[in-house]
Amino acid sequence: MTEDTRIGGPAGKFPATRLSAVLAARSDDPAERSRALEAIAAAYWKPIYKYLRMRWGKSNEDAKDLTQDFFAKLFEKEYLDDFDPAKARLRTFLRICADRFVANEAKAAKRLKRGGGAPHLSLDFDAAENELQRAGPLVQLTALPESVDDFLEKEFIRSLFGLAVDELRRECESRGKQIHFRLFEIYDLEGEGASNASYAELAKEFQISPTDVTNYLAFARREFRRIALERLREMTASEEEFRREARALLGVVPE
Amino acid sequence: MNWLSDEAIARLQTASALPDLAGTRYRLIERIGSGGMGTVYLAEDSALGRRVALKILDLPELRTELSERLLREAHILARLEHPGIVPVHDAGTLADGRVFYAMKFVEGERLDAKRIDAIHERLRIFQRICEAVAFAHARGILHRDLKPENVMVGPFGEVLVMDWGVAKILREDPAPREVHASIGVETSRKAPTVTKPLKTEHGTILGTPGYMAPEQARGEVESIDERADIYSLGAILKFLMAGPKSDAPPGSDSGGAGNSTASSAAIAYVPKAVAAIAQKAMAEEPASRYASVSDLAQDVARYLDGAPVSAYPESPFQKAARWAKRYRVAIGLVLAYLVVRALLLLWLKR
C-alpha cells in the first residue's frame, strides 16, 4: 500500500495498539485528527472511488477528482462529527455523504478551487482503476441500498485485507520472516493452482521441514488476522460495532 | 499492493476464521455450528484419541463480557456432573487469543429436529430433561434458555441439555472449586479465570421468545427463580406434544403449539392430562406453576403410570375410564373368564 498511497502511512506511524480512528477524528488535537482521518481515508478511498465509478457512472478522471475532493472535504468540514455508530455503519455513512457530495457536484468543484487548507492526498488511482478492470466489465450498480451496501462492504473488506497484507509483508521483512510471508502468499493469496502445492513440495523448495511449513503458515495467518482486526478496530467506534464488523470481515455468520 | 481476488478474500476469511490450535492437543476436523457466543468445532483430542467439541469465541476477547460468559459456562458445566448435562473437559485461551472450552462431542439430533412418534417416548425424553434441570436447580443453577434446540437426543436414547451460556447462579456451591477450568493443563495456554459471578443487569432479556417465562421476558432478572425454567419446560412439553412441525414457539402470542395446521392436528391427540401439566407449568403467575421441576416430573410419571395427575382434576367418569385403561389387562382377563364361564354353563345346561 505504500506504493499506492501515502495516506495511512507506513508501519510505525500509528501506535502498535490502534485506537478507534472514528473517535480520534473528533479529537481536539489537530495532529490526532489528521492521523485518524488519514487512516479512514486509507481504508475507504478505493471503495469510494469504485463506488463513484460504478454507482454514479463517473468517468475515470471525474471519479479521481471527486474522490480527492470528497476526502479533502472530509478532512476540512468535520463530516465525521455527525457520524453516529448506533445508527449506521461507517461505510454507509460515508456512502450517504458521497451521494450528497456528488449531487452537489457543481458546488464541490468550486470548493475544490478555494479549499486551499485541505490536504491533497496522494492516491494511486491507476491501481484502483486496474482493480476495477480486473474484476470484469463495469456494470452499473442499481440504486437498491442492499446492492450498494453489499458492494461497499465487499470493497471495504478487499481494501482492509490489502492493507493488512501489506503490513504483514513489511512486518515479516523487518523480522527476517520472508519465507513465512511467501508461504502465506502461495497458500492464501495466489491462485488455486499454487495453493495446491503440498507441504512436502514447499518444504523442499524453501529448504525447510514440512512441520516448519505448517508452523510458518500458522504464524503468518495468525499475524494477518491480528493486523486485520487491529485495522478494523480503527474503523469502528464501539466494542459492539467492532464485534459485528469483525464477524462480517471474517465471514462468521451465526446460524 | 497486489489486487486481492474474491477467491483470495474467501481464502483469507476462511484461514482467519479458523481457530489457531497450535500448541494444543486438539486437531481440527470440521465446523459444527455457530451461534451468538461463538462457533463449535469438531476436533480430535490427540492425547486421548477421542473426538471432542470445541466451543470457541470468534474473536480474541480477553476479559470481555463474552469471554467471561464462555468461561463461566465452562465453569457451570464443570459443576454439573450429570448424565443429562454435557461434560466439559478443558478450557483456556488459544494462541490467537480466542477463549475456548472443550466438551464431550455429542452425536445425535437436536430435539427440535428429531422425529418421535410414540407419545410415551416423547414423555420419557421429557422426564430425562427434567432430571437434568432438577439436578442443576439442586446445585443452585438456572438454565434460563431451555428450548428444544438446546436438547440433544443421542442414538442410544441419551438426552443431554446443552448451551448453559446464559445460566444464572442462584447460590454458590457449598464447596466451590477453582473457577478456572484448565483440566488438560498441557493444552491450555494462559488458562483465564473468572473471578466474580457475571451480573446480569435488571431489564436485560436473556432467553428465547416463546420459551421464556413472562417475568423473564419482562427483564425481571432479580426476581426470576427455578419457576422460570419450569415455564420453559412446560413450553418444551407443549412442543413435544405438538411435534416438530410446529411453526410458532409454544409460548408465543400467535397461538403456540396449536397454531399451525400441522400442530393443530397433532394437538388434538394430546391427552388432556398432559396438556394440563404443560398448562400448569406455563402458568402466567410463577406461584401458579409447579413448585419444583421434581413435582412437574412426578406428574408426568404419574400420567405414564396411569395414575391421576395433580394438574388435572378428573370427573368420576374420567376416573373410571383411566382406571379401566390402567387395569385393562386384568379387566380383560376377568371378562374373558366370565364369558368362558357363562358359555360353559350354557353348554352344560343344554
Unreliable stretches of chain A (pLDDT < 50, length at least 5) are 1-17
How much of the sequence of chain A is in beta strands?
under 5%
Number of helices of chain B: 10
Distance between the termini of chain A: 36 Å
Order of helices and strands of chain B: HEEEHEEEHEEEEHHHHHHH
> What's the oligomerization state?
heterodimer
Order of helices and strands of chain A: HHHHHHHHHHHH
Detail the topology: elements first, then pairings.
The complex is a heterodimer of chains A (255) and B (350).
Chain A: H1 21-24, H2 30-55, H3 60-77, H4 90-103, H5 105-114, H6 125-134, H7 145-174, H8 178-189, H9 192-195, H10 199-206, H11 210-234, H12 239-249
Helix pairs in contact in A: 2-3, 2-4, 2-7, 3-5, 7-8, 7-11, 8-11, 10-11
Chain B: H1 6-17, E1 26-34, E2 39-45, E3 50-56, H2 65-79, E4 88-93, E5 99-104, E6 109-110, H3 119-138, E7 141-142, E8 151-153, E9 159-161, E10 168-169, H4 214-217, H5 226-242, H6 261-267, H7 272-281, H8 293-304, H9 316-326, H10 328-349
Antiparallel strand pairs in B: 1-2, 2-3, 3-5, 4-5, 6-8, 7-10, 8-9
Helix pairs in contact in B: 3-5, 3-8, 5-7, 7-8
Q: How would you portray this structure in words?
A:
The complex is a heterodimer of chains A (255) and B (350). Chain A has 255 residues and is mainly α. Chain A contains twelve helices and no strands. Chain A has helices at residues 21-24, 30-55, 60-77, 90-103, 105-114, 125-134, 145-174, 178-189, 192-195, 199-206, 210-234, 239-249. In chain A, helix 8 crosses helix 11. Chain A is globular, with a radius of gyration of 19 Å. The two termini of chain A are 36 Å apart. Chain B contains ten helices and ten strands. A five-stranded antiparallel β-sheet of chain B has the order 1-2-3-5-4, with helices on one face. Chain B has a three-stranded antiparallel β-sheet with strand order 6-8-9, covered by helices on one side. Chain B has a two-stranded antiparallel ribbon with strand order 7-10. Chain B is α+β, with helices and mostly antiparallel strands and 350 residues long. The longest helix of chain B has 22 residues, at 328-349. The model of chain B is unreliable at 175-196 and 253-267 (pLDDT under 50). Helix content of chain B is 37%, strand content 13%. The interface between A and B is large, with 42 and 33 residues.
